Amino acid sequence: MDYRFADRVKMFKSSAIREISEIIAKGNDVISFAGGFPYEPYFPQAELEQAFDKVFASGKSSLQYGMTSGFMPLREKISERVKAKGIQAAPVEVLLTTGSQQSIDLFSRIMLSPGDVVLTENPTFLAAVQAFESYEAKVIGVQSDKDGMDPEDLAKKLKEYKPKFIYVVPTFSNPEGKVWSNERRVALLKLAEEHNTLILEDDPYGELQFNAEETYTPIAAMDTEKKYVIYTSSFSKTVVPSLRVGWVTGPQPIMKVLTQIKEAADLMSSPLNQQALYHLLNDFDLDGHIRMLCQQYHQHMLVMQDYLKKLDSCKWVEPKGGMFIWLEVDENIHATELLTKAVPHGVAFIPGAPFYVDSPRQNTMRLNFTNSNPERIKLGMERLTEAFQQAMK
Ligand code: PMP
């Protein structure tokens, strides 16, 4: 049988992450610093159960089809929450999605024709690149440092490639765990305006901030005329990922087309989950819960970092939030080879190379500190130290 797949399927690469997962799966009792998973014991399980009980007690309408744009009372709650970050989004301008991954996919679907260009940081979030490439777009990396994209290189590439949009994760990024300076945020928006180009701001980690004193303004909040920035976030990191509730907001003409394509994609995201989340937000102190997560994850990160300080020739920028430490190791260490040594020691991580859109650096790796408690992190880091020592011999 000749399976006549669409042209876009040619863009699918075998996922390096899948290959890595296979290496990891071969190990026994592996402490994983690999996935971007939250820590399950912190999940508000009892409160979610109560929220679902309330939904079921309210009758059968929650089991019915709902509106494509989502459950209005939840959109109202999200509108209030983003307002606190300086983002003006009326409830009708908030589209509920099946996680921010779907926001990225839907936005790509309405913007990208084959051959169109998307500019990203390099490295960047792998699954976003997969979404862009699935619409046959070309993804071009912009040079960046610890403060964000280099405005000079960005200006050059805006002129050269005339991209459809610029994709950024400016607050506690994946994979680098970094946060952009205010100046770089302003510079990005100014350049986007000058080149009449949209920005897709992906902000799933922004609320996981360890030091409450600093403030990071979302680029969407700087776009006061609401012309250039499409902003997406979700409850995956602050409540639980399995609810699959995310949202997207942006310029009104974009929202109109996004809602049309959302209908074509899946009619709507789960009304049941949206209604349960609405009750959770009403009855539960989510902000208090997020403060607890920030405090705890900060401790997890510090425990991991203490071990890194003892390793030779490792460089990283201490994360101020989020879920990851991005590590640059000795030039002579190939992170995928290190992983094959680490797994028999009972510890895993993700090599950095797959996150690059070009010029992958083999001596980089991403360590997640949220999926294990500090005790397990200590044990995992002892194992990783042994693997390092073996690799350096
Ligand atoms: N964007 C980034 C940067 C992410 O790291 C993730 C998940 N790890 C997502 C989007 C997707 O998250 P979700 O669909 O669960 O909201």
From TrEMBL:
GO biological process: alpha-amino acid metabolic process
GO MF term list: pyridoxal phosphate binding; transaminase activity
Domain of life of the source: Bacteria
Ranges where the Aminotransferase class I/classII large domain occurs: 51-384
Keywords attached to this entry: Aminotransferase, Pyridoxal phosphate, Transferase
Cofactor or coenzyme needed: pyridoxal 5'-phosphate
InterPro entries from the UniProt entry: Aminotransferase_I/II_large (IPR004839), Class-I_PLP-dep_aminotransf (IPR050859), PyrdxlP-dep_Trfase (IPR015424), PyrdxlP-dep_Trfase_major (IPR015421), PyrdxlP-dep_Trfase_small (IPR015422)
Transmembrane intervals: none
Subunit details: Homodimer.
UniProt family annotation: Belongs to the class-I pyridoxal-phosphate-dependent aminotransferase family.
Protein name, as recorded: PLP-dependent aminotransferase family protein
